Automatic annotation (TrEMBL):
Pfam families: Cpn10. This is Chaperonin 10 kd subunit-domain-containing protein. It comes from the Eukaryota. CDD domains: cpn10.
Length: 215
């Protein structure tokens, strides 16, 4: 699953190569893009060299995160111009403006707010999303024997942050997620968006993907 992702979920290693070769190029006579409705216009972060053991990798190995800075917004309530956001990898429409990559997204495709260069644990999830630190797979048996076979990754973890909630249909009333920071929860497999930060894994999921609280 490393290096892959779908609209329903996937893994992001703080950025994987995203191809903008097929992005729509903004014609030179136009200088700005004004989002309409519930859309936001984001300038995508430039790829950064990734090193292994301090060795700089070739340009083809450079990675670009699914993050960027909001340039302009339509009729939205959760983000504003200047915010640095993380968004669903294959969401939206890619648009190149000059030499810069941009993406036109629905606000719902914005996963959360994360100041540039900050670590994933500092991400503020939006709407009814929940940031979870994933449990690590056991690599030894109960008798202390090292297991060699590929282990299935656990689908539970500890809640790190909780979004503000979703609006009720036909109402401005907010409904907060029914989970709390510090709880251990079980969630649906193949849901959400996964991130790796050092040796730790995190996932951002919708409240509807939580199956149970564990104690």
């Amino acid at each position: 699953m490393q290096g892959t992702m779908s609209r329903l979920g996937g893994r992001v290693n703080r950025g994987q190569l995203k191809c903008y070769a097929s992005a729509n190029a903004l014609p030179k006579q136009f200088k700005a893009v004004k989002p309409i409705g519930d859309r936001v216009f984001v300038k995508v972060d430039k790829p950064r060299p990734r090193s292994v053991g301090g060795v700089l990798l070739p340009a083809v190995e450079m990675t670009s995160s699914t993050g960027g800075t909001v340039v302009d917004v339509g009729d939205v309530s959760m983000v504003k111009s200047g915010d640095h956001v993380i968004f669903s990898k294959f969401a939206g429409t890619d648009i190149s403006v000059g030499d810069d990559a941009h993406v036109l997204l629905k606000e719902e495709d914005v996963i959360g707010l994360l100041p540039e260069n900050e670590l994933i644990p500092n991400l503020t999830p939006l709407s009814d999303r929940i940031l979870i630190k994933c449990a690590k797979a056991e690599n030894t048996s109960s008798g202390g024997v090292l297991l060699n076979e590929t282990l299935e990754k656990p689908n539970f973890g500890s809640v790190v942050k909780v979004g503000t909630g979703r609006k009720k249909e036909d109402s401005d009333e907010m409904v907060k997620p029914n989970v709390e920071v510090g709880q251990t929860v079980m969630y649906s497999k193949y849901s959400g968006t996964e991130f790796e930060e050092g040796d730790d894994s995190y996932i951002v999921i919708r409240e509807s993907d939580i199956l149970a609280a564990l104690a």
